[in-house]
Amino acid sequence: MIFFSRSHMRMPKEQIRRLIGPISEGAALLHGTCVEAALKLFETGYLPSGRRCFKELRGYIYFAPVNSEMPPGLRKEFQNFDRARALESAADYAGNHGEERYITEQAVAAGIPEAHAEKVMLEWIYGGNYNIPKRERELVNNLDYESIIRQASNRKGVVIEADRSILDIGVELDDEDDAVKLHCPRGLPAKYVKRIEPQGPEEVQIINNYLARIS
């Protein structure tokens, strides 16, 4: 388990600008997430770890590894993961997280507490029925499902390239997926984030709007 000291501090605008752009040719570790996670990084200096609604993911950050850039001990575990496949995997996760976060935020905006809003998102995307109190269920029934799902599909997320130095601080193989993971319950410090590549026009606009708001 990796614990990092936390001091909430907004990242300087120029530092953020330097991070935004295509991932590098020598990228080793790629993480797909929603643009809101990137904004949280900008505001606090820490990239949030796994989603609360999935207990097994809580506190972890997952990375698609590029085989050729892995240390010999890990390289054999990811023989089919060249740069293109790692980027495709991270981009898929980014899109999924982007959709999930958009739906959750729309439910929160309708007055549903976030813990129940995440259950709404899980129902809408993955099916099933979750224990949602009657009042919140009534609010869910008033949401414009078709419109929200359509807008959510426009969210493509961001791919984050991590500095390869995190390979030295406790990454683990993930037993159920083609990934490595880092246990950092308080989030990943900005110093380990090398690049952020928006995956869609909405993400570009959201980041540009954020930069325009800060000094």
Summarize the structure.
With 215 residues, this protein is α+β, with helices and mostly antiparallel strands.
Q: Any overview of this molecule?
A:
It is a single chain. By secondary structure, the chain is α+β, with helices and mostly antiparallel strands. It has one domain (13-207). It is built from eight helices and eight strands; from the N terminus they run H-E-H-E-E-H-H-H-H-H-E-E-E-E-E-H. The chain has a six-stranded antiparallel sheet with strand order 5-6-3-1-4-8. A two-stranded antiparallel sheet has the order 2-7. Helix 4 packs across helix 5. The longest helix has 27 residues, at 83-109. The chain is globular, with a radius of gyration of 18 Å.
Number of domains: 1
Shape estimate = globular
Secondary-structure content class: alpha+beta
Number of strands: 8
Low-confidence spans: pLDDT under 50, at least 5 residues?
Answer: 1-5
Average pLDDT, to the nearest integer?
89
Q: What is the helix tally?
A: 8
* Intertermini distance: 36 Å
Largest sheet entry = 6 strands, antiparallel
- Strand fraction: 5-15%
Q: Which strand order do you get reading across the main beta sheet?
A: 5-6-3-1-4-8
H and E string: HEHEEHHHHHEEEEEH
What is the helix content?
Answer: 40-55%
CA radius of gyration is: 18 Å
